Amino acid sequence: MTCILAFDTAGPYCAAALLKDVDVVTKSEEMARGQAERLMTMLQEFLQDNSTSWADLTAIGVGIGPGNFTGIRIGVAAAKGLSMGLSIPLHGVDGFEQRKRLGLAPVISAPRQQIYIFDHGVPRMISSQNSSLAPSQPDPDQIARAIAEDTVARGLDAPNPAAPLYIKPADAAPARDSAPPIFP
Amino acid sequence: MSADVTILGIESSCDDTAAAVVQRANGIGQVMSSRVFGQTDLHSDFGGVVPEIAARAHAEKLDHCIELALRDADARLCGMDAIAVTCGPGLIGGVVAGVMMAKGLSAASGLPLYGINHLAGHALTPRLTDNLGFPYLMLLISGGHCQFLIVEAADRFRRLGGTIDDAPGEAFDKVARLIGLPQPGGPSIEAAARSGDPMRFALPRPLLDRPGCDMSFSGLKTAALRARDAILQEEDGLTEKDQSDLAASFQRAVADVLAEKSRRALAEFQTTTGTTGAFCVAGGVAANQGIRSALQDIADAAAARFVAPPLTLCTDNAAMIAWAGIEQMALRAPDGLTLSARPRMPLDTVSQSMLGSGKKGAKA
Fold this sequence. Notes:
The complex is a heterodimer of chains A (184) and B (364). Chain A is α/β, with parallel strands linked by helices and 184 residues long. Chain A has a domain at 3-104 and 138-154: Nucleotidyltransferase, domain 5. Chain A is built from 4 helices and 9 strands, in the order E-E-E-H-E-H-E-H-E-E-E-H-E. Chain A has helices at 35-49, 69-86, 95-101, 140-153, and strands at residues 3-8, 13-20, 23-30, 59-63, 90-93, 107-110, 114-119, 122-127, 182-183. Chain A has a 5-stranded mixed β-sheet with strand order 3-2-1-4-5, with helices on both faces. In chain A, strands 6-7-8 form a 3-stranded antiparallel β-sheet, with helices on one face. In chain A, helix 3 crosses helix 4. Chain A starts with a strand and ends with a strand. By secondary structure, chain B is α/β, with parallel strands linked by helices. Chain B folds into 2 domains: 5-132 and 316-350, Nucleotidyltransferase, domain 5 (2-Layer Sandwich), CATH 3.30.420; 136-311, Nucleotidyltransferase, domain 5 (2-Layer Sandwich), CATH 3.30.420.40. In chain B, 43% of the residues lie in helices and 20% in strands. The two termini of chain B are 33 Å apart. Strand 9 (182-183) of chain A pairs parallel with strand 9 (238-239) of chain B.
């Protein structure tokens, strides 16, 4: 029996979906902070409420962003730990795939009037002011459902490595004080 | 005699991604495996560890690192008795990645989860390497930390003093950059200092004129910058001789400060505990031979045993986290899945905090 737990913490929420064969149930909680403390207990309660144990799971699906950097890592790290600990496949699903599966525009809002888009096969961040593209924002339950369904659709034999999709490079400035010339 | 235990340890609080398996059998600790993935190359262009770059690397590499540690130990997760993970203090993005990975492993395997203070890992290492008894004095000197601790038990630490600003490892890195030496600064300054004159530049010995064991390294770094700029006013650059003299003068100043403060800390330790005890060092700066021999002399003069764990267990690693987990298992309940990752997490919760005692709380 297929039994997939999917979850996402790339936005201000913890969202989860449990897919058993064809039935999907979802659960989400909005939170601006505290995802790292809440995620695992929420998943545990969610499984219990649906008479499922960790050992029943056959695969894990996780949202890999783009979104909040720390949020993405909270979800992906937990998913990697679960996948390794249960010896079951892990499948990462990015926000563009989630939206496609939900029939929404693959445009995602980014900080400071910017948007993430999928442009000729390359994910990019652009200014939203010069663009006619409007971001879509599915609710967290839908996102978790989309991740679960995508995980099934991709097949469990060839899981992807679930690498976070940050798109935006890390903020880092080169060292300010340059070294003086050195003579022998 | 306590029961035999085997623990998986995970560490990701700064710029080393690490996992290890440690076993205690018949009361003796043994490192079954210890993997450390450094990130020096990733940060080398930026003159310091960039938190977001570090966090990304941890999230990417940690699972692989854990798999390798288990494989090296010829062990499986289900063969562990518990999982221990650094939950602070440190760069929060990396700590969160480690804590969440550990929670996933714990939920999946049913193994108890222990959140470990990174500093406790360093402070308890001499018990793993040398089976040292309590109490003992620990000087932790690294790129992020600098403090004297009386280690009274696996969960009881008393801080005698520490840096009020920069950690010495940080000062080594910054001074190395100022005088054109490569990163990491510790080894390159030590190498350059070998041929240098430590008396050429009169650098200050901060806080030696004040009682107690607190230290300061920020002003020393600035003094090194002034000394360099004085040369650059006369010349177009530094000669290799200038470099090595600056390196030697700086290293000697750090060693002098650490030695004198260690002498005081050891005297205070011996008075309060009524034992000769042992003086232990840990952290990357303890790898510096000039500093190490100065500290050894202080221990010898006080008739205390000097213990410096091997370098691989002195710098950041996960074996020390696993070992601290083994020690603390006997003393407290596991933390469970609500464990928080904390950027600030003082080891001594009784003494007044030193750094960042504002709204966000003490750093260490």
